[in-house]
Amino acid sequence: MADSNTVHSPLLTYASMLSLLTLCPPFVILLWYTMVHADGSLLQTFTYLREHGLQGFVNIWPKPTAVAWKIIAVYAMFEAALQLLLPGKRVEGPISPAGNKPVYKANGLQAYAVTLTTYVALWWFGIFNPVIVYDHLGEIFSALIFGSFIFCIFLYIKGHVAPSSNDSGSSGNVIIDFYWGMELYPRIGKHFDIKVFTNCRFGMMSWAVLSLTYCIKQYETYGRVADSMVVNTALMLVYVTKFFWWEAGYWNTMDIAHDRAGFYICWGCLVWVPSVYTSPGMYLVNHPVNLGVQLALYILVAGLLCIYINYDCDRQRQEFRKTNGKCLVWGKAPSKIVASYTTTSGETKTSLLLTSGWWGLSRHFHYVPEILAAFFWSLPALFNHFLPYFYVVFLTILLFDRAKRDDDRCKTKYGKYWKLYCERVPYRIIPGIY
């Protein structure tokens, strides 16, 4: 079961699970409060909490309001409808540990285009003002915190009572099952994939929607959009567009193919992505930094380059897998390792491990441009406060941990072939260093 996920010592695993379960919800509220009401200053928030104690924290935690629930419900139903109704190519995911091959409908890019067009059109024609979303942001995050917690309880019960496939099961521990999840591919009915909804259509989509919201709020407050906000929003939107362009490739990644649907993935995508991932833009709303044309262009170009390299890494590996290694990588035939492994049902299968191109630099080189891209879309905030860079720090820790988990999983799966692979590509993330 989920023991493949718990690659750290049991004590560390428990400590990290319990701390994330208890600390992440209040952190989301403190982040929002600091960005929106405390000038982005950690010191200001800390001083307030020191003076007012726990009651002060209770006072700043917004109650989920009817407006917040309505905004979330309409948005969730709209995205669910697009996921089910928009046409899309039939795509097969990788074979699961239990031998299942999940089938998806790839219509993410269409859903993304429809969502952003609809949102901007509603504002443009005066039907709905996105400023309402910003003005109720604390209540929305509060509602998401509680609503998503209930949703994770639903996933836990569903995993026990009505799992969608035999890629499910219990570790025998309630906390581990709730945190890591019971099912790998939970679905409602035959066609509605829950992880595609939580990770892609709610989480990633809300990143783009909130980026636009922050832009519109700044425009309506100051009568213009500062170049810092333009650079931040442009880079984040390009990154999210890249994600939806490549969404079918995402379904082959660790998040979907290996991590089960529990608090870690689903609550994270429903709450942490909209709040933390968008936080540099949230800060910029009330801090219209003027970069000047030259600096703005430098940051924009550097960020775009990082997003492109991140995309090209994924494209290279995808093409390599799709053509079974019969393709060109950087203009020549790829070098590879043919690795065999045994599934849980006892079948022997083979995988190709790419050891050239971007993937010859390090085993997870694609994380380097991803972290740098996040740095460049945070950089327009300049350096008056640390908090706009929290996402970069968080992302770095997340990806370094994910690289370790992925390496440990591959070591168990491929055995001697993985050892050979590590000899050929010795660095985990940063070439020449780590």
How is this structure best described in words?
With 434 residues, this protein is mainly alpha-helical. Helix content is 64%, strand content 6%. It has 18 helices and 6 strands. The protein has helices at 10-37, 42-60, 66-85, 108-124, 131-135, 137-161, 174-180, 194-222, 227-245, 247-250, 254-257, 263-277, 279-285, 293-322, 358-361, 367-378, 390-414, 416-424, and strands spanning 89-92, 103-106, 187-188, 192-193, 336-342, 348-354. The protein has a two-stranded antiparallel sheet with strand order 1-2. Strands 3-4 form a two-stranded antiparallel sheet. A hairpin with a 3-residue loop joins strand 3 and strand 4. The chain is globular.
Distance N to C terminus? 30 Å
Shape: globular
Largest sheet, strands/sense/barrel? 2 strands, antiparallel
Low-pLDDT stretches:
1-7
Report the structural category.
Answer: mainly alpha
- Rg over alpha carbons: 22 Å
